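[User] I wish I could look at a protein chain and see how it folds. I have put the entry right below:
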Amino acid sequence: MNHAPDTERVDAPETPAGTGGVSRRGLFGLVAAGVGAGAVAGAAGTLALAPTSAPSADRYPFYGPHQAGITTPAQDRLHCAAFDLTETATRDDLVGLLQDWSAAAARLTQGQDVSEAGAVGGPALLPPDDTGEALGLPASGLTLTFGFGPTLFSTAEGTDRFGLADRRPADLAELPSFAFDLLDDSSSGGDLVIQACADDPQVAVHAIRNLTRIAFGTARIRWTQLGFGRTSSTSTAQSTPRNLFGYKDGTANIKSEESAALDEFVWVGGHEPQTWMHGGTYLVTRRILMTIENWDRVALATQDDIVGRTKGEGAPLSGGTEFSAPDFSMRRTDGMPAIPDNSHLRLAHPDQVGTRILRRGYNFVDGNNELGQLRAGLFFMSYQASPVQFVAVQRSLASDAMNEYIRHVGSAVFAVPPGARQGAFVGAGLFD
């Protein structure tokens, strides 16, 4: 079954006065006044029904069959944040948070403040609903993508906090340990995740900042990651970018125009017993430190052998251009494989692992360590119909020569539900 891509631009009028987004303060006010959870859901749904924007070339719709930010042409900047629900949060709090986040996301992705009152339209003696650092900035292609971690359904001790354990897909399991993992718990896991991508870093940071404010009292940040310089292309209209090792990255990535490949490798199909995940996908995040000072002292020919491609053109070492199919049977004059057996290209290639994933990673530089080395690397993100696909790729890379220059220090997996329909909220099917 083919699914429409999530790259359609949005054309809609401005939100009518009096029906703009809602803050958690407003929703909690309804509850305090004695309005039941069902009425609160109705209030958020009414807000979500309101059209959210005027036509623009830099806006993507929040509502649709799939969440934006997956096959959407990869933007240049990232702010990703994982959250844990507080100890006192209830199921109604979780539903209310997702409703509030959805209503706010529908506005933010159209370049609007988080609510109608926004940064300057509210009472002067109260804190503004919006923090204001995006005032005057365009939407900048902002997309907001939401996902649910395994611990949302049951804790590591098996506690079902929100009555969702029986709705957990079998594929949503903690990732196994991999060779060379040095995982930091504070950079891993999470009950919820928000991926904010935009072409302006301030727009992405503004979105996460304001969604975090909305979550106050219900969820708190577990970890965040800023990223710059996309390391993959998700559209044939985009050129292949380079990672911090200086090599083109993700040449063979699944593109948004490959509808058959998306159906096979990215979108969850009708075989999934948990129907709320139909049309959704799974997100894997890996924080990978790169020992770039060591890499920078490696000879060019050796770098090429480690990657399996030429640094300039990005062509496979078997010859051709960047997009030439690699010939893994080709030998050099000394009888050795033209593409070494332990090269990254050979071990990660679909012919080796038997599957594909949609990569959507970003470079990062987070200051330096005590030795004066840059704390830099790749924030790897991939979308796939099952995390089993990522596991197959990662296990194949156990003998990758590149492992000498990288360290996996953060890891997480999330179920990403399908897009929200107009009038509902992201993940609504989970609570049906």
